[in-house]
């Protein structure tokens, strides 16, 4: 296995399902930062078989709703002085605002700048996460795998 | 029941008791219209119609004028600030200074909800795309109440385009909340009621639903026959349309063995789905249904303005 220096002070996002690592990396805009970051892909894992890992040598603000939406299996480790100071899990968010668009092209949230697309979770099956739009009541789907 | 300052975006915004309090007032207004002629003196209704709907707009305007109030507004988006690119949220904020209550008709789904989020005066949804049209539902409920006294223990057939018809969706979801209503859904296979609505009313309200493609199967059993228009363009092919269209047209023959006190309803405008020979039948109430729209809108606005 390839060696990656462990970080001293920052965040490790672990147990990411393969393929989701890149999505999270892009969402966190980690390609455009000036501190050390690393995206490990297809790392052997006891829990998942294979997994992705992201290491960030900085305590950035994380949008847990956004992370839970992309992959609710992840673990977030906060690192201080080289040790894990806090472990966090994320959930598929019950309410989301402004993270994605409504699939209904006729929905007002797709045409009025003051309408922040807002959704309520109605089904949390990871293969077909289902959100209902608070404006038009239509469904928008997500697939985490 | 105090409904002052509330919005009506979806019939589900109101409890059955709240809906009934509007219907009761509407019944009274219909009986004794003159008694209410000064109720909204000094009040202003704004009619914000981003797409034309002459009947809905006139019905609201008539309702406000009959209560002694005033109206202002626009009838389509080409003459409004929307044509200059103003967002709906900004328009409603401005209108808040011009009027005491507003009705909005807009082609985008969820538009009335958005407007209500930026408004401290009551916003009424006058139709938002294919989504909701709650005052039509209130009109339907009032018509049922006027003829059947109570909205309960009824067999209700809905016939025609049950897939795309928002009037039907809203009516079913609202009626299902009343006591012991069973639904008889009559439509061609391609235009059946969406599964999610069926599941919703079955699970939430325990409603019974019977589905068929033939109007004849149910027409002699039901208390209410709600007809809707089937549009040619909803069919996958012309052949299906021609084959099916006559089976969803109501004629005098078809109702010859129906219940004496069955109500034949239609949201109007109709095209040909109810033959004109039916109009003179005493069970045909669709024109009165349209008139009832004014009374129910009067009652709704009076309640939301808090003047009763
Ligand atoms: Zn929507």
UniProtKB/TrEMBL annotation, chain A:
GO terms for cellular component: aspartate carbamoyltransferase complex. GO terms for biological process: 'de novo' pyrimidine nucleobase biosynthetic process; pyrimidine nucleotide biosynthetic process. GO terms for molecular function: metal ion binding; transferase activity. Residues 95-139 form the Aspartate carbamoyltransferase regulatory subunit C-terminal domain. Residues 2-90 form the Aspartate carbamoyltransferase regulatory subunit N-terminal domain. SUPFAM superfamilies: Aspartate carbamoyltransferase, Regulatory-chain, C-terminal domain, Aspartate carbamoyltransferase, Regulatory-chain, N-terminal domain. Pfam families: PyrI, PyrI_C. Coiled coil: none annotated. Keywords: Metal-binding, Pyrimidine biosynthesis, Transferase, Zinc. NCBIfam families: PRK00893.1-3. This is Aspartate carbamoyltransferase regulatory subunit. It comes from Thermohalobacter berrensis.
TrEMBL record, chain B:
GO terms for biological process: 'de novo' pyrimidine nucleobase biosynthetic process; 'de novo' UMP biosynthetic process; amino acid metabolic process. Pathway: Pyrimidine metabolism; UMP biosynthesis via de novo pathway; (S)-dihydroorotate from bicarbonate: step 2/3. Keywords: Pyrimidine biosynthesis, Transferase. It holds the Pfam family OTCace_N. It comes from the Bacteria. The gene is pyrB. It comes from Thermohalobacter berrensis. Carbamoyl phosphate binds at residues 55-56, 105, 133, 136, 268-269. It catalyses: carbamoyl phosphate + L-aspartate = N-carbamoyl-L-aspartate + phosphate + H(+). Heterododecamer (2C3:3R2) of six catalytic PyrB chains organized as two trimers (C3), and six regulatory PyrI chains organized as three dimers (R2). Belongs to the aspartate/ornithine carbamoyltransferase superfamily. ATCase family. Catalyzes the condensation of carbamoyl phosphate and aspartate to form carbamoyl aspartate and inorganic phosphate, the committed step in the de novo pyrimidine nucleotide biosynthesis pathway. This is Aspartate carbamoyltransferase. Residues 153-302 form the Aspartate/ornithine carbamoyltransferase Asp/Orn-binding domain. Its EC number is 2.1.3.2. It is an enzyme of class 2 (transferase).
